[in-house]
């Protein structure tokens, strides 16, 4: 029997209204395809549910509100419920990246995430993903448990390949480049801050933030002195809209932008996540705090402020620029 679960409102990488759809192509490098493309049919979603999904009857199909990029739907069957997201404009690569991230987190057997089942192409264009449907509780759950479970995931999910991920994915609707690197500072500079700065230059002609950001990237290694950095599996987009709880109160995290990185980078959306003292206390009991954690916190927020600037406009520029200017004042050139 397919596990019964419910995924409620979907959210993508912002505390505010929806980002635009993809504006840049998403590259693919990984040869394996663990979420095999469905054979074309008039309704590949129904076909999968009634075959590999083990259902014999679809009793009800209900839209779920809250998504700003994809259409979300609940399929109730005689063997349980499925959660389905579709997008009529984007091919399967975006959903495959999400599925690979969910699968990686699911396999750590730590924090609860929806189990992904199928990614495929829609016959009239676009794509879909079928996953477990998790029944949510009435609250976002206990922050102390969330902190501990997240730390357990970071501790269990390690990569021998280095920093990056098997595929490029998305952060909101912005491509997130995950080319493997053996050096974290190099990876974060080039594929996180550097990529966002290039987008700001391309989109707004913002040479000021680009040049100051480049200067920060050259000198930010000073913030990591004495720090041991392991490639931990990160959710990558952990804000309040992507955190919920199951009916029994256990934390559930959704809509990832996964990659293997420095565990502290997970807190880059903390300005929009509502993490309190109990969260951090529980987290650091499992993953001890490294020297200079407080000095690096804004560096990881900067990536997300830059992404919001690129997605939503100038309202986020001042926050990003303030972080860059503050670091340039304290770092030695």
Automatic annotation (TrEMBL):
Tell me, what's a Pfam family for it? Fructosamin_kin
What's its catalytic activity?
A: N(6)-D-ribulosyl-L-lysyl-[protein] + ATP = N(6)-(3-O-phospho-D-ribulosyl)-L-lysyl-[protein] + ADP + H(+); N(6)-(D-erythrulosyl)-L-lysyl-[protein] + ATP = N(6)-(3-O-phospho-D-erythrulosyl)-L-lysyl-[protein] + ADP + H(+)
What's the top EC group for this one? Answer: transferase
In the Enzyme Commission scheme, what number(s) does this protein have? Answer: 2.7.1.172
Where does it reside? Plastid, Chloroplast
Highest taxon of the lineage: Eukaryota
PANTHER family xrefs = FRUCTOSAMINE 3 KINASE-RELATED PROTEIN, PROTEIN-RIBULOSAMINE 3-KINASE
Task: Say which family it is in.
Answer: Belongs to the fructosamine kinase family.
Role noted for this protein = Initiates a process leading to the deglycation of proteins. Phosphorylates low-molecular-mass and protein-bound erythrulosamines and ribulosamines, but not fructosamines or psicosamines, on the third carbon of the sugar moiety. Protein-bound erythrulosamine 3-phosphates and ribulosamine 3-phosphates are unstable and decompose under physiological conditions.
Name of this chain's protein? Protein-ribulosamine 3-kinase, chloroplastic
